[in-house]
C-alpha cells in the first residue's frame, strides 16, 4: 500500500480531516488565550505585547505557514468530501428523510464549516491582512491591533457576523472535537467519555470567549 | 389484548427495473390485524393486487424472524420502521394506528441500485466480505474449549460485532450512504480474535479499498447507523476500524 492509497481512501481522507482538525483546535487554544489579554483592562498594553510577540518572532511566523497549510487542507478536503458524500445517495433521494438518529449539527458539518469559512475571510480581511501588509509580510512594524479591534467592532453588523461565526464554530466543534478522536481510532469507552465531555466543554467555552470579544468592545466592557 | 383491525393508506415506491424511473403509488388496505407483521400486511396487499389482476409489489424477505438480514424497507423515514433494534419482518402493525398513511421506500444508495420496487441489489456487501472478511488459517478439528485463551471482554465484543446481519440499514440511514458500520462490524469481529490475526492488516486495507470501489460514502460519525441498526452494532466499532486502518497503513509494507 502506497502513501497515496492511504490518504486517498475514504478512511485516509477522514484521517486528514481529523489531524488537521485537532491541529486547528490547538491553534484555537493559543488564539483565544492570547486574545483574552484584552480583558486585562490596561488599554491594550498586555494584548499588544502578546500580539507583537506572535507577529514579530520568527518561530510563530513559521508556524503560521503550517497553520495556513492545515487550514487550507481542512477546508479543501472538507468541501470535496461533502460533495462526494452527497453524490453517494444516487439519482433519487428519500421522500421522508431520517433525522431522528443523529444530531442536526453532526449532519451539517459542511454547512457550518462554510459559514466559518465566510466568517474567516472577513476576519482575515479585518485584522490579519492590514497588519501583515503594514509589516510588508515580513518581520516589520505592526499596527496597533487593540485600536484596530476597537475600530472594527464599533460596527454593529461586524459584531453580529462575528457572533454568528462563533455560534457556527461552537456547533462545528460540538461534533468535530469528539469525531476527530474517534477517527484516529479512540474506541475505549473511558477515553471516549473524556473526549466527548471535553469536546462539549470546549465547544461552549472557546466560541463563547471569542464571541465576548467583539461584544466587549462594542458595548464598552473593556477600556 | 383487544383485537383491532385497522385501515391504512400506503405510499409504496414502484419501479419496473434499475433502468426505469420509479414513482410512488398509493394503495388502501382495510381491516389489517394489528397482530400481523409489516411483511404479512404486504402479503395481504399483494393478494389484493393479484385478485385485481395487478402486478404484486416486489420486496426482499427470507427468514421473517429477524436474523437473516434480507428484509429492507425504509418505512416512514427510518430503515426497518419506527421501532428500535428491529427488522421490518419483526415490525408489527400495532406500531400503527387506524387511518395512518405509511410511506415505504427502498434503501437508497448508489451502491445499492434498485432492482425492482423495494428490492435493491446488495451484492456490493458480498464483494466487501470477499475482499477480506474471512480467516484462512486451517482450524482443523474442533479443539478443547480452553486451549486457546480469549479474554472474555474481547470474546463478547467480537460476538456483539458478529451480530451484524448485513441488511444494509446503516447505509440506508447514513446521510453519506456510508457502509462503515457494516465494514467495522466485520473487521472488529475478526480483529478481536486470535484466529483473525494472520490477515489482520491486509483485511482492513482490502475491505476499505473494496468499500470505496463500490461507491459508498465516507463516514462522518453522525451515529444515524447505530441508531437504526436492528442488531445495535456499536459506533465504537467504527473507531476500532479506524485504529486498525491507521496502524496497518503506518506499519505494513
Brief characterization of the structure:
The complex is a heterodimer of chains A (223) and B (253). Chain A is mainly alpha-helical and 223 residues long.
Keywords:
heterodimer; A: 223 residues; mainly alpha; 3 helical TM bundles of succinate and fumarate reductases; 9 helices; 76% helix; 0% strand; globular; B: 253 residues; Ubiquitin-like (UB roll); Fumarate Reductase Iron-sulfur Protein, Chain B, domain 2
Topology:
The complex is a heterodimer of chains A (223) and B (253).
Chain A: H1 3-8, H2 10-35, H3 45-55, H4 58-87, H5 104-107, H6 109-134, H7 145-152, H8 156-183, H9 189-218
Helix pairs in contact in A: 2-4, 2-8, 2-9, 4-6, 6-8, 8-9
Chain B: E1 5-14, E2 23-33, H1 38-51, E3 74-75, E4 78-79, E5 101-105, E6 114-116, E7 119-120, H2 123-130, H3 152-162, H4 169-173, H5 180-191, H6 200-214, H7 224-228, H8 236-251
Parallel strand pairs in B: 1-5
Antiparallel strand pairs in B: 1-2, 3-4, 3-5, 6-7
Helix pairs in contact in B: 2-6, 3-5, 5-6, 5-8, 6-8
Task: Find the count of extended strands of chain A (DSSP E, 2+ residues).
Answer: 0
Count the beta strands of chain B: 7
* CATH superfamily placement of chain A: Fumarate reductase/succinate dehydrogenase, transmembrane subunit
What's the CATH architecture of the largest domain in chain B? Orthogonal Bundle
Beta-strand proportion of chain B: 5-15%
The figure for the number of domains of chain B is 2
> Sheet bearing the most strands of chain B, described?
5 strands, mixed
Distance between the termini of chain B: 64 Å
Supply the CATH architecture of chain A: Up-down Bundle
Amino acid at each position: 500500500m502506497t502513501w497515496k492509497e492511504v490518504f486517498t481512501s475514504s478512511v485516509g481522507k477522514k484521517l486528514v480531516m481529523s489531524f488537521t482538525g485537532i491541529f486547528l483546535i490547538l491553534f484555537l487554544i493559543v488564539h483565544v488565550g492570547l486574545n483574552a489579554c484584552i480583558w486585562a483592562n490596561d488599554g491594550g498594553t498586555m494584548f499588544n505585547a502578546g500580539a507583537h510577540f506572535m507577529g514579530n518572532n520568527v518561530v510563530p511566523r513559521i508556524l503560521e505557514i503550517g497553520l495556513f497549510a492545515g487550514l487550507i487542507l481542512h477546508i479543501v478536503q472538507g468541501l470535496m468530501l461533502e460533495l462526494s458524500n452527497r453524490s453517494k445517495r444516487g439519482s433519487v433521494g428519500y421522500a421522508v428523510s431520517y433525522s431522528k438518529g443523529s444530531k442536526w449539527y453532526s449532519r451539517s458539518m459542511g454547512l457550518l464549516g462554510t459559514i466559518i469559512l465566510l466568517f474567516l475571510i472577513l476576519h482575515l480581511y479585518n485584522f490579519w491582512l492590514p497588519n501583515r501588509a503594514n509589516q510588508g509580510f515580513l518581520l516589520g512594524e505592526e499596527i496597533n491591533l487593540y485600536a484596530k479591534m476597537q475600530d472594527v467592532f464599533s460596527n454593529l453588523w461586524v459584531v453580529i457576523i462575528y457572533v454568528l461565526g462563533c455560534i457556527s464554530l461552537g456547533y462545528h466543534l460540538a461534533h468535530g472535537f469528539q469525531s476527530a478522536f474517534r477517527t484516529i481510532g479512540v474506541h475505549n469507552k473511558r477515553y471516549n467519555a473524556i473526549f466527548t465531555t471535553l469536546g462539549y466543554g470546549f465547544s461552549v467555552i472557546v466560541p463563547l470567549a471569542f464571541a465576548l470579544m467583539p461584544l466587549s468592545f462594542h458595548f464598552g466592557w473593556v477600556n | 389484548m383487544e383485537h383491532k383491525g385497522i385501515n391504512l393508506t400506503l405510499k409504496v415506491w414502484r419501479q419496473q427495473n434499475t433502468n426505469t424511473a420509479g414513482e410512488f403509488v398509493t394503495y388502501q388496505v382495510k381491516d389489517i390485524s394489528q397482530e400481523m407483521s409489516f411483511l404479512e400486511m404486504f402479503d395481504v396487499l399483494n393478494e389484493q393486487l393479484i385478485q385485481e389482476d395487478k402486478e404484486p409489489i416486489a420486496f426482499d424477505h427470507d427468514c421473517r424472524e429477524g436474523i437473516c438480514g434480507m428484509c429492507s424497507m425504509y418505512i416512514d423515514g427510518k430503515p426497518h420502521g419506527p421501532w428500535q433494534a428491529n427488522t421490518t419482518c419483526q415490525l408489527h402493525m400495532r406500531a400503527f394506528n387506524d387511518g395512518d398513511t405509511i410511506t415505504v421506500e427502498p434503501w437508497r444508495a448508489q451502491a445499492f441500485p434498485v432492482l425492482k420496487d423495494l428490492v435493491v441489489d446488495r451484492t456490493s456487501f458480498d464483494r466487501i466480505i470477499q475482499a477480506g472478511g474471512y480467516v484462512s488459517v486451517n482450524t482443523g478439528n474442533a479443539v478443547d474449549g480452553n486451549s486457546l485463551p480469549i479474554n472474555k471482554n474481547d470474546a463478547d465484543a467480537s460476538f456483539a460485532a458478529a451480530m451484524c446481519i448485513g441488511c444494509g440499514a446503516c447505509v440506508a440511514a447514513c446521510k453519506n450512504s456510508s457502509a462503515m458500520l457494516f465494514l467495522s462490524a466485520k473487521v472488529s469481529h475478526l480483529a478481536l480474535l486470535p484466529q483473525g490475526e494472520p490477515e489482520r492488516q491486509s483485511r482492513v486495507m482490502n475491505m476499505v479499498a473494496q468499500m470505496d470501489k463500490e461507491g459508498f460514502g465516507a463516514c462522518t460519525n453522525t451515529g444515524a447507523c447505530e441508531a437504526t441498526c436492528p442488531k445495535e452494532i456499536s459506533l465504537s466499532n467504527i473507531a476500532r476500524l479506524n485504529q486498525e486502518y491507521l496502524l496497518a497503513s503506518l506499519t505494513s509494507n
